[in-house]
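stage 2 :: seqdesign
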């Protein structure tokens, strides 16, 4: 394998100083466009690559970001990662992606390992176990070391760092209101993530909409579970004993399962029962019929989180300047709801 060409060799070949080559490769305004072009073209021709280790030692930066994801099989998290990767690459940063599988211990171990000089900052989503334990010491320690962190989706008020979130209450309120405006009077609620704070916010939005329109919540058509186990049976029991003409599902899995139950019972969607789901993923698009869903713009969430973190790493934002970014949502209308000409 040929030895990698160096800045010194480029300078010698083009009869310029090492400083000029360095500035040209970094696109400095101090170097003329003609000289920059000549140096950059020569470097590209000879496959020049910067020594990232030397640069990190010089700049005290690794140009690497640690990404903490609780569940890579979740479509929303996969889309967030794509947004992070896109912005990070554009800004010249690498990413190290770690999956906690909803484990508090794995989250702690991973962050401790990466915070030992391997990365410049974290973009993280809290695991279910961490939220249940309410033990955030690993985050406090990293922040005390002045390593920036941006939390997304699942956050907690006790962790004083930047956050990128969805307005879950408002989005759920508007989704429920949409069903009511399409003449649904008995709207069921289904969640298979009972206990997660973000889902409790969506429940609040649902209840807020009912109250606003003077509808008394009916606990008999509200299904709360920690997971999807036995959900089909619960939905069937609810439909056997209650009148339901609309269903709002807090998560995408619930929406897909509810659709399966209705189809098996030969209930017409949306003529007999309309359905709206939360999170516009693959399950929503390929259900039968495709589900009307609240689009949370996961890709945008990732881009915003990455931009905020990199701006902090590069000193464009002060470390103590803490901000919560709220990503807008929109309702994607498909065939599981009646066609309405109303704004979400």
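stage 2 :: out
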């Amino acid at each position: 394998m040929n030895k990698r060409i160096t800045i010194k060799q480029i300078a010698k070949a083009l009869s310029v100083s090492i400083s000029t080559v360095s500035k040209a490769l970094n696109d400095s305004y101090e170097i003329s466009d003609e000289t920059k072009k000549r140096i950059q073209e020569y470097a590209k021709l000879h496959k020049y690559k910067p020594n990232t280790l030397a640069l990190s030692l010089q700049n005290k930066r690794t140009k690497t970001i640690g990404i903490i994801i609780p569940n890579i099989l979740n479509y929303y998290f996969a889309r967030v990662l794509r947004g992070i990767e896109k912005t990070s690459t554009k800004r010249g940063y690498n990413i190290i992606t770690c999956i906690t599988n909803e484990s508090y211990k794995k989250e702690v171990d991973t962050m401790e390992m990466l915070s030992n000089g391997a990365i410049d900052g974290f973009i993280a989503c809290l695991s279910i176990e961490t939220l249940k334990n309410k033990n955030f010491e690993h985050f406090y320690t990293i922040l005390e070391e002045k390593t920036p962190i941006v939390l997304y989706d699942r956050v907690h008020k006790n962790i004083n760092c930047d956050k990128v979130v969805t307005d879950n209450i408002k989005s759920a309120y508007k989704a429920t209101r949409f069903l009511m405006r399409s003449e649904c009077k008995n709207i069921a609620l289904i969640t298979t993530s009972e206990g997660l704070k973000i889902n409790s916010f969506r429940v609040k939005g649902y209840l807020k909409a009912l109250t606003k329109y003077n509808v008394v919540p009916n606990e008999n058509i509200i299904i709360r579970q920690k997971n999807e186990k036995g959900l089909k049976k619960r939905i069937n029991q609810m439909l056997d004993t209650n009148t339901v003409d609309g269903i709002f599902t807090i998560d995408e899995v619930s929406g897909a399962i509810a659709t399966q139950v209705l189809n098996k019972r030969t209930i017409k969607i949306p003529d007999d029962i309309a359905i709206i789901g939360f999170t516009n993923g693959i399950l929503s698009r390929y259900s039968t019929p495709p589900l009307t869903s609240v689009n949370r713009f996961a890709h945008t969430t990732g881009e915003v989180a990455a931009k905020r973190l990199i701006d902090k790493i590069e000193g464009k934002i002060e470390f103590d300047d803490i901000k919560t970014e709220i990503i807008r949502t929109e309702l994607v209308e498909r065939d599981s709801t009646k066609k309405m000409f109303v704004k979400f």
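stage 3 :: structure notes
- The first strand starts at residue 64 and ends at 69.
- Residues 75-90 form the longest helix (16 residues).
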